[in-house]
Amino acid sequence: MDTRFLAIAELAEAPSAAVVVDVMRAFTVAAWAFARGAEKIVLAESLDEALALKARHSDWVALKDGPPAAGFDAVNSPGLLRSADLGGRTVVQKTTAGTVGALSVKEASLVLCAGFVVAEATARLLRIRGCGSVTFVVTGDDGRADEDLACAEYIAQRATGAGADAAGFLRRAGE
């Protein structure tokens, strides 16, 4: 498998397969939302779009980065979602890095959004699909967030069938 690790700003064209990595917030929150019963997640391009979607669908749950704000149900925090009942609900998510990265590759044939909590499942799907070329979009800190790069490198190694040990990658992410 041919892999590239790029920042959002380095994307010149839609790749055939993209794995967008945001460990700290967006896609760890997304995994928790699905674990808490969310039916689907809609990624918003802006805070205004997220609020407009919420206004049209009052039963949807709107999440954003940063401090709480009027119109949003919660902030992007895995810890806050641990007790939320999202059964059958749609979540609207707007973040400063992860959702921006995912929307920047929305024309790709395959777009996966990942963090460490879904790393093995992501690698397994890449193996099953037999992706010959995968672009990993490292979203945090303008593409320099080591937790995102560590996760992307771990997924890439696992996707090729290598017996990568997560411990070293997780240590890097925690530093």
TrEMBL record:
Please give the Pfam families that the UniProt record associates with this protein: 2-ph_phosp (PF04029)
The record, for InterPro entries, names: ComB-like (IPR005238), ComB-like_sf (IPR036702)
Chemical reaction(s) catalysed: (2R)-O-phospho-3-sulfolactate + H2O = (2R)-3-sulfolactate + phosphate
Q: Which UniProt keywords apply?
A: Hydrolase, Magnesium
EC code: 3.1.3.71
Q: Which cofactors is this protein said to need?
A: Mg(2+)
> Entry's PANTHER family?
2-PHOSPHOSULFOLACTATE PHOSPHATASE-RELATED
Q: Which family does it belong to?
A: Belongs to the ComB family.
Q: What is this protein called?
A: Probable 2-phosphosulfolactate phosphatase
- What organism does the UniProt record list as the source? Microbispora amethystogenes
**Which taxonomic lineage is given here?**
Bacteria, Bacillati, Actinomycetota, Actinomycetes, Streptosporangiales
